[in-house]
Design a protein that fits this description.
With about 475 residues, the chain is an all-alpha fold. The protein has 20 helices and no strands. The chain is globular.
């Protein structure tokens, strides 16, 4: 059976499964708490793997492997930063966020960030949070749709425009139907597919290369000295920037709404502890697997036009046709569908945070579904008419969200007292500086862009803290 035929059959089967999950979940979704938080009943496996799949998706499978292809072994610092940020989030933030959500009946990150703010200041802060989430997530979701489109274009004789629209429509259907339960269960399936891909394909490719020693020897021949150095073979100041820039990527983990909402939905503290271990194992397998795959791609396919397509190129080259087809189809589906978590958070901002459902309480779930449709349309238009490199687009949204919300979450977990207006000033300081720095030429390792906005925001809140 031809690889393309296998991919088509697998894709159709997988998409029908996602829609079936949406229909199943729709029967469990009878309230806005169910639609946006799954009635706070997430167990460890679903919480951990859906968290991981939501955090990674196209930017790991395609973007990270492409970054390793281009940058070489210095990509290790980016991986370590992501791992450290994830572990810190689960160990430090998950429990207090979970408890606050349960005790105060909070549905969204906005509820958590505005918990003790009253009156007009609360509404202004809510509007600020909502704007930042919607602005960043529309670009974030567009990157996922674009990743699916470019993947289809590389596998099929299909225009990226059609691929983006098809993927967006399917994500819309099952998220519309089942809300948080559908998103979490489908993300869990996708997370399992991603970890299988991150193990099977690198191992198969390593066998073709001839093992670790042959890989290292081959890389030394086809790579520049900068690509073979952990610090880019740079002077000490630039090298420090490369290391700090990679590690600083983990800081933004603390401010990602689509990840923090998993903490709010946890069933209990036992589930949190188990999920921490599961997430850590998943991250190690997927991140290191994709980095090694990108390095092997440099050795086997040094002339590839688009490094972000090295995953699909190697799958077709080193795996048997049937296995390659199944793996490629499943991963394309995972890329398309991982937008769902960001999509649901965006819908919760429109429906819950901005009060649309409160004005029409009898139509709360319907309003949430309409909000899902609105965000899908906006993100699809951006993916179609404002294309960008997947890695760069996701990195911008990741850093901007982290700088805007990460320091606020940390300060709230520490129970610092902050004046109402200072919350708003800090949020715009972090977000605004992230946007501004993204427009400037990159510093070594992007250390300024990835670290400075977060540090400025946290430093400001530290200075204005009530003693």
């Amino acid at each position: 059976m031809a690889t393309t035929t296998v991919i088509v059959v697998t894709l159709l089967t997988y998409k029908l499964l996602l829609i079936a999950i949406g229909l199943w979940a729709s029967r469990r979704t009878q309230s806005d708490t169910g639609f946006f938080l799954g009635d706070r009943q997430l167990g460890p496996w679903v919480a951990a793997i859906s968290y991981s799949a939501s955090a990674c998706s196209a930017w790991t499978l395609l973007g990270l492997s492409g970054a390793a292809f281009v940058l070489g072994i210095s990509v290790l610092w980016l991986i370590l930063g992501a791992l450290l940020g994830m572990v810190a989030a689960w160990m430090v933030l998950a429990k207090p966020v979970q408890l606050a959500s349960k005790v105060n009946n909070l549905l969204t990150l906005t509820d958590f960030l505005t918990l003790d703010v009253e009156g007009a200041a609360r509404w202004r802060l809510t509007q600020s949070v909502a704007f930042v989430i919607l602005f960043c997530f529309i670009f974030y979701i567009a990157a996922q749709f674009q990743g699916a489109g470019t993947a289809f274009a590389s596998v099929f004789d299909l225009a990226a425009t059609n691929a983006i629209l098809i993927g967006a429509a399917i994500v819309l259907v099952y998220t519309w139907l089942g809300g948080f339960w559908a998103v979490s269960v489908t993300d869990t399936i996708q997370g399992l597919v991603m970890v299988l891909a991150a193990v099977i394909l690198p191992l198969a490719t390593l066998q073709v290369v001839g093992g670790p020693e042959a890989l290292w020897a081959g890389l030394a021949q086809v790579s520049t000295p900068e690509q073979m150095s952990l610090t880019g073979n740079a002077p000490w100041l630039t090298a420090a920037g490369i290391v700090a820039g990679g590690l600083a990527t983990g800081l933004s983990t603390f401010g990602q709404p689509h990840l923090l909402v998993r903490f709010m939905a946890l069933r209990d503290d036992k589930a949190r502890l188990q999920a921490t271990i599961i997430t850590s194992v998943w991250y190690v397998l997927v991140w290191f697997g994709m980095a090694i795959l990108g390095l092997m791609g440099r050795l086997l396919m040094p002339e590839i036009a688009d490094p972000e397509q090295i995953f699909f190129a190697l799958a077709e080259d080193v795996l048997p046709p049937v296995m390659a087809g199944i793996l490629m189809a499943a991963v394309i589906s995972a890329i398309m569908s991982t937008a769902d978590s960001q999509l649901l958070v965006s819908a919760s901002v429109l429906a819950h945070d901005l009060g649309l459902s409160k004005r029409l309480p009898a139509y709360r779930v319907l309003i949430g579904r309409a909000a899902v449709a609105a965000v899908v349309i906006a993100a699809s238009l951006i993916a179609l008419y404002l294309p960008s490199q997947i890695f760069n687009r996701v990195l911008f949204a990741w850093v901007a969200l982290g700088a805007a919300f990460g320091p606020m979450v940390i300060v709230r977990v520490l129970h610092w007292k902050i004046a109402e207006n200072h919350w708003i000033i800090g949020l715009w300081l972090g977000f605004g500086s992230a946007v501004l720095l993204s427009l400037l030429p990159s510093a070594p390792g992007d250390v300024v862009e990835r670290m400075l906005p977060f540090v400025l925001h946290l430093g400001f809140l530290t200075l204005v803290r009530k003693r």
